[in-house]
Amino acid sequence: MMALEQAKTNKDYARLVNRIYHTSDFEFVGIALQETYYPFVIKWRFAAGNQSEQFRQIVLRKGIGIAGLVFRTGKPFYDNNLSKYSFSNKMYTPIANAESLWSAVAIPVASSLGTVNAVLLAGYRRKQPVSLETVAHLGEYLHG
Amino acid sequence: MIKDKYLEKYVGQSRSAIMFFAGDQLIASNHSAEELQRRYGLDPCYLRQIAQNGKSSSTAGYQVRTNVVTIPTKEKESLHLSLCYRLLDQEEDVYSLTIRNLQHEEQLSAQERQHLLTRYVNRAHEKERQRISQDLHDSIAQGVYSAIMGVRRFTQGDLSPAEQQETSQAIEIQLQETLTEIKEMALDIRPAVLDSFGLVPAIKALAKRLQANSGVIINVLAVDEQAIQLTSDEQSVLYRVCQEAINNALRHAHPSEITVLLSNHPHVIQMQVLDDGDGFNLKKNAHFNGHSLGLMNMKERVTALNGVFEISSHPHEGTTLTVKFPLNTVR
């Protein structure tokens, strides 16, 4: 987990997203941030490899979708064949829909107290399965 | 005899399953009955018992028609059957059992249709309550509980000023999020904006929210609110139909874009919900699965207010749902 001090500016987040996108084979990389003021909305703020600007419209909900689950639990999540989830399913991941992702991993970016205020997500449009290994691989970018 | 030959043919080809019993024994059955047994593994004696249970509650013993009977099958769908028990020969205890599979819509009577619909609506209500209850439990209660834990940590823990600051902010965020969820739930149950600002703002708010939740583009193109003079009943129905149509599209069609069109014509107000998703074969889906009962219920609500309800869809060509209400009619 990355301490808040290490990447507290937006510029750092933008740079991180771009670096991951350019040095890995992920087809989409994004960071969702929770606003620090009312109503504390969570949105995708930085993305690389995006196919449209549609991702900006998404409001994440804690506990719903891969990234939402990371926000709620503070634990990494990954899943494949994301289009199998219907809209009413808790695993339905809006970003997967907006960006046509087949698979994705998401890991928490935590503040010093352990509360999650950002989530890093990376995924594939092609049928490239992700696993715990992919989670670890993405995690390396936060430590490095 | 020629009469027997045609009688036999008629029974044999009937889409209703017909079985003849003598006592407990099945003595004859037609093709549909065999099909029913083979495909769903239904025991004829079981069906006989269901029909006879209906018999005991009836005074006239010669013919008994049951209400719709739902039988779960090995596949996920359930079978909706209507059974008719008819005594043919009292002395030899011979009787017939005619079973209609209500999956075939054309075989339905108006009353049976109503029964199915009522059941569907009741089930939908119950499901809605279940969802609200679960949301209250999962989101609201959980959120309040987390806030309580935060307060406890704040008062009991030996926190540095910086940690105090962060904890208090975490508690605030927790409570604000819970507040947002409560407001969302209230919105789901009945949008206040529909009552105070009218149909167009309500549909726009709905589209914006569903777009934010789904990642699918949802456009609303609407005429001026003033141009839409509808009764509050009509507004409610249009709102609910729109809500269900968008939800249906999101759930089943994998669309990339949904558009709601609200327009007024000389004598008609028209609402269309279009999506560019998978579409479906209307004819194939005309039997009673949950989806089409949902459609049937929408249609029922619209036609009850003298409106017109149409749906057109083809595989891979999306779905268009149209509702029209006449203007200036006597209400």
TrEMBL record, chain A:
Organism, by scientific name, is Limosilactobacillus panis DSM 6035
Q: Which residues form the NLP1-9 GAF domain?
A: 53-113
InterPro entries listed in its UniProt record: GAF-like_dom_sf, NLP1-9_GAF
Name it.
Answer: NLP1-9 GAF domain-containing protein
TrEMBL record, chain B:
- Describe the reaction catalysed, as an equation: ATP + protein L-histidine = ADP + protein N-phospho-L-histidine
Kindly list the GO molecular function terms attached to this UniProt entry. 4 iron, 4 sulfur cluster binding; metal ion binding; phosphorelay sensor kinase activity; protein dimerization activity
- Cite a GO CC annotation: plasma membrane
User: What UniProt keywords apply to this chain's record, in alphabetical order?
Assistant: 4Fe-4S, Cell membrane, Cytoplasm, Iron, Iron-sulfur, Kinase, Membrane, Metal-binding, Transferase, Transmembrane, Transmembrane helix, Two-component regulatory system
Question: What's the cofactor?
Answer: [4Fe-4S] cluster
Give the enzyme's main class according to its UniProt record, as a single word: transferase
UniProt xrefs under Gene3D superfamilies: 1.20.5.1930, Histidine kinase-like ATPase, C-terminal domain (3.30.565.10)
EC number(s) stated in the UniProt entry for this protein:
2.7.13.3
Q: Does the keyword Transferase apply?
A: yes
Provide the function of this protein.
Member of the two-component regulatory system NreB/NreC involved in the control of dissimilatory nitrate/nitrite reduction in response to oxygen. NreB functions as a direct oxygen sensor histidine kinase which is autophosphorylated, in the absence of oxygen, probably at the conserved histidine residue, and transfers its phosphate group probably to a conserved aspartate residue of NreC. NreB/NreC activates the expression of the nitrate (narGHJI) and nitrite (nir) reductase operons, as well as the putative nitrate transporter gene narT.
Name of the protein this chain belongs to: Oxygen sensor histidine kinase NreB
Source organism per entry reads Limosilactobacillus panis DSM 6035
